Amino acid sequence: MKIVYVRSYFSSFKTFYDYVEEAFERAGHKVYPFDYRSYKIPSLIRERSTYLQNVSVTKINKDFIKFVDEIKPDLLFFSHGFTILYPTIVKLKKKHKCIAANWLCDYPRDFEIAHEYAPLFDYFFVSSTDALKRLRLAGHKNIYYILFACDPNYQKPLELSTADKQKYSSDICFVGSMYPGRVRMFEKISDFDISIWGPRWEDITKGSALKALVRGSSLDTEEWVKAFSGAKIVLNNISSFAPYVDNMMNTRIFEILACNAFQLVDTRDDILMHFTSGSELVCYSSIEELRKLLNYYLYHKDEAREIAANGYKKVIYSHTYDHRIKEIQEIINRPLT
Questions:
Q1: Which end of the chain is more exposed for a tag (fewer CB within 10 A), N or C?
Q2: Are residues 180 and 191 in the same domain?
Q3: CA-based radius of gyration for the chain
Q4: Total of domains in the chain
Q5: Is the pTM of this model over 0.85?
Q6: Helix, strand, or coil here: 166?
Q7: Which pLDDT value is given to residue 110?
Q8: What integer pLDDT is reported at residue 211 of this predicted model?
Q9: Are residues 110 and 227 in the same domain?
């Protein structure tokens, strides 16, 4: 199958977009990527002018139409891609008689635009039960629930060198962006040996106890896999990520487990639908509970290793991007109702 994959190249590191593209290719499809953020005018200039923003989006759509006309795909597959305008999608679907699908991986921040765009697609995939429920209650019948996953080609257990152990070893590791909610959480557990890595942590207040815990800024995939491998506990925090986050799991759930690392994560119903807390990972519901669990598992290392091993087996057998592409294909191959 020929697939035009509408994706972003916003990062120099491997991301969700790369994992999906490569999984499609492993499944035997020919993939033609198109960057829906391929603006010719820098964002600092565009943001000051509605006219320049419109000119940029118009150019992207013209380029996309030409691209699709040359490929003549069987499937238009989007991950977001909301610079591609409504009339463009309608025109191309009609002209090439191709299937159109979208995997919205940033719900619920994009709910309103998802609500507007969902009818354009034959299949609209979301990664939280809240998104599934909300969009179906809004009247959309083409909404499907598809989990995030891991890519064992990149996220995998590692034996660290002596130099890497010096750089990455810690009791507790966290990799992720700085948000005010996360700052408040970490300030309440700052007496533990924690290594914090990620964007914007250098911006925290000078007098903050967290300054001493920040080990560095953004890590590429190979580096954060080493950080996970060097930690006794990998902390995953979803609820303090941003005010719009709902019940959705993040990609880190699967990526941490794929590294055979012990994971502590804040409780979400979607997590408990697919993983057993205390057996494959461990969930916490409050700072008080988190502190108790940190103390417990730092001193019960064998138990933590057993839980990590169970989680690793679970994601490798059920939650890779190869599994997700197979699920997407099975849904697309069903007769539309």
A1: C
A2: yes
A3: 21
A4: 2
A5: yes
A6: helix
A7: 66
A8: 92
A9: no
